[in-house]
Amino acid sequence: MAGLRERKKQATRIAIRDAAMALFATQGFTGTTIEQIADAANVSRATVFTYYAAKEDIVFGDAASAVEALVGVLAERDGSVLGALQPWLGQLTGWIEPELVLQLRLAREVPVVGARRLQNYSAVEQVVAEALETELEPGQQLSARLAAASLITAFRVAEETAAARMEQEDRALTSAEIETLFGDAVRFAEAGIAALRG
C-alpha cells in the first residue's frame, strides 16, 4: 500500500510541475499564479505548497531530494567521492531534460529563479566538499573546497552546453551525450584533485 501511496504522490508532484512549466513557457514566471498552476494540475492551492515550498522550487523539480540522495550515496560509498558521483548523476531524472532550456531562460530572466538555481548548486558543492575533506589528507580543507567548486562549475558548464545544443538542434540530448558531458565534468575535477595532491 505504501508503494501505491508513494506512486500517487510522485504522480501529483509531476502533474504540478508539468502544469507549471507549461504555464511558465506561455505566460512567463511572474505572470503565472499558484492558483493557475493548481487549476491546471487539478489540485488545490494548498496541495501545490505541500509539494513545493515556493513557486521557484517548481522550476527545478526534485533538486532538493537529489541533494539528499547524494548525501546518502557519498556516506555509503566504497571508493572515492568523485567515483561515487558518476552513478548518482546517472540516476538523476530531469537534470538534463527538454525543459532545461526553459529553466535556464527563467534563471536568467527572473532573479528569484536564478538565485534558487545557485542555491541548488551551492548545496551540492557543500555536500561534495565535506565528503572530499574526509578523503583528502588532514589540513587540505582548501583543496577540498577548490575541487568541489571546480566540479560544480564544470556541471554548470555541462548543463549550459546541453541547453545550447537543445536550442540549436531542437532536440533532447541522448543518454550517451549527457553521460559524456557529466563524465567530462567529473574527470576535470579529478585532474584538479590530482594536481592539488601534487
Description:
The protein is mostly helical and 198 residues long. The protein has two domains: 1-59, Orthogonal Bundle (Arc Repressor Mutant, subunit A), CATH 1.10.10.60; 61-197, Tetracycline Repressor, domain 2. Helices cover 79% and strands 0% of the residues. The chain contains ten helices and no strands. It has helices at residues 2-27, 34-41, 45-51, 55-59, 63-75, 81-91, 100-109, 111-135, 141-169, 175-197.
Overview in brief:
The chain is mostly helical and 198 residues long.
Mean pLDDT: 86
Quick one: overall form?
globular
Content of β-strand: under 5%
- Can you tell me the CATH class of the largest domain? Mainly Alpha
Unreliable spans: none
What is the β-strand count? 0
Would you identify the CATH architecture of the largest domain? Orthogonal Bundle
Largest β-sheet summary:
none
Structural class: mainly alpha
Q: Could you tell me the CATH topology label of the largest domain.
A: Tetracycline Repressor, domain 2
**How far from one another are the termini?**
54 Å
Helix content: over 70%
Order of SSEs: HHHHHHHHHH
